[in-house]
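Support request from a user on the community tier.

User writes: "When I paste my structure tokens into the form, the page sometimes reloads and wipes my input. The last time it worked, I copied everything first. Here is what I submitted, just in case something in the input itself triggers the reload:"
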């Protein structure tokens, strides 16, 4: 099963286009760095903030789930498999951040009996960090 959360990076498109010319067309290196930012923020959502990329707090686990966990883990954390599976992959034209865990789609989208807890996506802070990273690249700090 696969879920796709796409984002239009028009906010930083001009920087990406300028950088593409500077790097002879391949954006793999800066996109790999963007992937690192996204992987880190996704992990932080799961482990710490318990919020969606838009800043909304996730619903608490049900009383039955809390009892079954017996104090272990928290929202979207039981044994830590989802958290450990978050990774990214970059190419010359794109970056993908996600999880290989089959159940990750249910956490992101929810089910009939479980509320969605979106963890994939870009937050306002992610856009800010990506913009700062692009400026660093354009100013030659990564040459």
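"...and here is what came back when it finally went through:"
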């Amino acid at each position: 099963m696969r879920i796709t959360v796409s984002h239009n990076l028009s906010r930083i498109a001009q920087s990406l286009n300028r950088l593409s010319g500077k790097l002879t067309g391949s954006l793999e290196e800066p996109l790999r760095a963007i992937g690192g930012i996204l992987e880190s923020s996704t992990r932080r959502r799961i482990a710490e903030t318990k919020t969606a990329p838009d800043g909304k707090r996730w619903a608490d686990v049900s009383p039955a789930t809390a009892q079954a966990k017996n104090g272990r883990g928290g929202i979207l954390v039981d044994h830590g498999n989802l958290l450990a599976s978050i990774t990214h992959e970059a190419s010359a034209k794109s970056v993908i951040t996600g999880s290989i865990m089959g159940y990750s789609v249910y956490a992101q989208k929810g089910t009939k009996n479980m509320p969605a807890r979106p963890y994939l996506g870009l937050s306002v802070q992610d856009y800010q960090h990506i913009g700062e990273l692009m400026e660093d690249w354009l100013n030659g700090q990564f040459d």
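Agent notes: The reload is a front-end session timeout and is unrelated to the input. The longest strand covers residues 87-90. The radius of gyration is 17 Å. Escalated to web team.
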